[in-house]
Design goal:
Largest sheet: none
Structural class: mainly alpha
Radius of gyration: 17 Å
Order of helices and strands: HHHHHHH
Number of strands: 0
Shape: globular
């Protein structure tokens, strides 16, 4: 468990480093400053996990699952749609995902970083941490259901700290998009990891949530 906590702390430090990098390179004018920095953070996290687990990478369970990955993508995308509809019923508003909400003028830079971050960098990095490193440990320490819930809760708390919604948002809106929505997504992705025994499947499920977030951003911007 100590190794898990150290990995989580290191991942959050990587977020801080990436945010500082984005601010240093792009300044205050580019609306993609934060997401560009977070993309760098995800690369740092991937490197961190890959190096610290170089002697036992089998533990990460990166082999393909027996369930076809397109089917996992389809099911997780449906879960993302259902989660968003629940959020609309609770908050009464439609916002982009917390990671994308601060994007303003949607130029080529914003779209490139949104797609790369949400579909590739974030799914790989966060699933290596939460379903590759953390999930097996908390499952062994507690029980299968406890491991599923705790790994999802850790994932949601990480999102709450790393990608907070603006203070201008109503409390219910901020709570939903910064904590509850990631918690539900974390439960779905953890369930995929538990059912398939594959972190690669969890990455695909996470990418499905990211794909929905990008498509939703497109609808919000065009609307």
């Amino acid at each position: 468990m100590g190794a898990v906590l150290l990995t989580l702390v290191a991942a959050f430090i990587a977020i801080i480093v990436g945010t500082f990098f984005g601010f240093s390179i792009f300044g205050e004018t580019a609306s993609y400053r934060d997401i560009a920095g977070w993309t760098v953070s995800m690369v740092l996290i991937i490197g961190l996990v890959w190096q610290t687990r170089r002697r036992d990478r089998e533990w990460l369970r990166l082999k393909p699952p027996s369930t076809p990955l397109p089917l996992i993508l389809f099911i997780a995308f449906g879960a993302a749609v259902a989660t968003d509809l629940l959020g609309l019923a609770i908050t009464g508003v439609v916002l982009p995902a917390a990671e994308l909400v601060n994007l303003r003028a949607m130029g080529i830079g914003e779209w490139v970083f949104a797609i790369v971050f949400m579909l590739i960098a974030q799914p790989v990095a966060e699933e290596l941490v939460f379903r590759g490193v953390a999930f097996p440990v908390v499952r062994n320490l507690f029980n299968p259901w406890g491991g599923l819930v705790i790994s999802a809760l850790l994932y949601a708390l990480f999102h709450l700290l790393a990608y907070p919604i603006s203070n201008n948002a109503a409390p219910a809106v901020g709570l939903w998009y910064s904590l509850l929505q990631p918690l539900i997504a974390g439960l779905v992705i953890s369930a995929v990891r538990a059912a398939t025994g594959s972190t690669r499947a969890a990455v695909m499920a996470h990418a499905a949530f990211g794909l929905f977030a990008v498509l939703k951003l497109l609808l919000v911007v065009s609307g």
